[in-house]
Amino acid sequence: MIKFKNYYEILGVTPDSSNAEIKSAYRRLARKYHPDVNPATADLFKDITEAYTTLINPEKRRQYNILNGFFENRKTNTSSQKAEQEYKEKTTSEPNKDKNIKSQFEKKQKHSEKIFADTINDIFKEFTKKEQKKPEPQNGADITADVTVNIAEALKGTERTVNVLHTKLCPKCQGRKFINGSKCSTCDGKGEVSEHRKITVKIPAKIKNGSKLRIKGEGNPGKYGGKNGDLYLNVKIQGNSKIKYDGLNVYYEVPITPFEAVLGGEILINTLEGNIKLKIPARTNSGQKFRLSGQGVKQKNKSGDIIVAVHIEIPQSLSDDEIKLYEKLQKASSHNIRENLLND
User: Fold this and answer.
1) Cβ proximity of 277 and 267 under 8 Å
2) 118 and 30 within one domain
3) Residue 197 shares a structural domain with residue 249
4) How many CB atoms neighbour CB 18 within 10 A?
């Protein structure tokens, strides 16, 4: 069932209102409810426009009144009544002049359409005046993304192709969100669209974990002449079986020889920032850990630690002299290091 629309109620006029009053009411409502002013009232503005185009046209108004039971006050000599009366007189008193009647009626219809078009143009002129004021330049927003490299790449430097999501003005509505009173179909009324762009960036050699790279001008585009934003890449170094990153701390698994474990000594540990010396005490056990404070990842005013876990490793290739020394050590040793295995 088609829902009845009271065009007089929508425009806030009565069946006795003149064309001038209808036009004035439409102007007032259009300024308030046009989608360019209030996007949430797009549906209401369609009803307002529909009501106006019907009531401003004498013939359409007459048909609307008859179909919906509206009766004008015959004492009120409105322009709508005049047009209706003239139309009736000509169609009844001059039945042989159909062509002239049709021509005059079409002229009146075109005149009504011109009034409607002029009204719309006046309204849009007001909006155009506002739009002609050049808006202030707006800089584009910065974009942040993560990029991961392995330890070898961090040492030597490398390149990465980053897939970045950019936001830009909708090319169809140019950020206005609405076109002809309806939501822009391209951006769905958001005024912006998103697109993925692939950017190749260089990762410098000896970069540190947690470093931030700035690629100027590769952020979101500026508006109204504003500068483009920047792209910031957070660099993360992926560890391996011997090196692990945990926040600002770095964990190393470092092998030592049997004689280093027994006699102690100073060893060198390779890090991304160069070699670090670590003193191994005599009689060090495999799995023992050592902490190097402040030698980990440095970030602003904070520094992490390096935690070194040593384990005794036998070289894969031993000379005859080394084997003879181990045999001599075996004969000289009287310790049973497994005697308390069940008591621990």
Assistant:
1) yes
2) yes
3) no
4) 16
Same domain (yes/no): 86, 193: no
Residue 199, C-beta contacts closer than 8 angstroms, at least 6 positions apart: 161, 162, 164, 215, 218, 231
pLDDT one-digit tens code per residue, 218-234: 888 887 778 889 999 99
The residue ranges of DSSP E strands in 30-79, in sequence order, are none
Alpha-carbon span 75 to 83, nearest angstrom? 15
| Residue 195 and residue 164 in contact, taking contact as beta carbons nearer than 8 Å | no
Residue 180 shares a structural domain with residue 278? no
| Beta-sheet pairing, 178-179 with 182-183 | antiparallel
Are residue 163 and residue 205 in the same domain, yes or no? yes
What's 119's DSSP letter? H
Other CB atoms within a 10 A radius of the CB of residue 234 amount to 14
| Mean pLDDT value across residues 108-133 | 59
Plot region of 283 (φ>0 → left; ψ -120 to 50 → alpha; else → beta): left
Give the number of C-alpha atoms closer than 13 A to the C-alpha of residue 259, restricted to the C-beta side: 5
Residue 29's alpha-carbon distances to 22, 49, 112, 180, 342, in angstroms, are 11, 10, 19, 17, 93
> Could you tell me the pTM of the whole model?
0.48
Rounded percentage of the chain residues whose pLDDT exceeds 70: 80
